[in-house]
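Example record used in the benchmark description.
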Amino acid sequence: MNKRNYMNTSVQEPPLDYSFRSIHVTQDLLSEEPRTGLRPVRHAKSGKSITQSLWLNNNVLTDLRDFNHTVSQLLEHPENLAWIDLSFNDLTSIDPVLTTFFNLSVLYLHGNSIHRLGEVNKLAVLPRLRSLTLHGNPIEEEKGYRQHVLCTLPRITTFDFSGVTKADRTTAEVWRRMNIKPKKVRIKHSAL
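Model output (structure tokens):
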């Protein structure tokens, strides 16, 4: 199957689902059987899965060490990953490896242990990210949580399973103006 056909068909493909498998490290995916759904995941001649969705929710992952390597062994076209579900794990930060998947449009991180609101800034490089969940993390308790996320990621349309409205955007912009100091531009004074 050529790459063009893959991009057209795999959006409808079922996810590669490793949820509820007690996975501790990403390498465990290579020895674990994914869950089976109503429709089976198709495989390329290489034996790798043909899908754009990877579900790793409800496990015990604390980090994403070797994530790229593992995913490249599981998926025929890992660069086309559009949906990653890492909800209900033990992640304490947003691993920069997630920012290497430029086709990522859905990212679920709710129910983890992310405690620094600044972690969200890493996701700003993802051009197609439209849906993000972070509720159930300690950062949810920080003042300006929703506004910070919406300012940092202006292209998302769904945040914490709730649609982003024009009013949300306006509130976020007002919050940004009141809370984010612009970077000072230093003007060099030349000697006269």
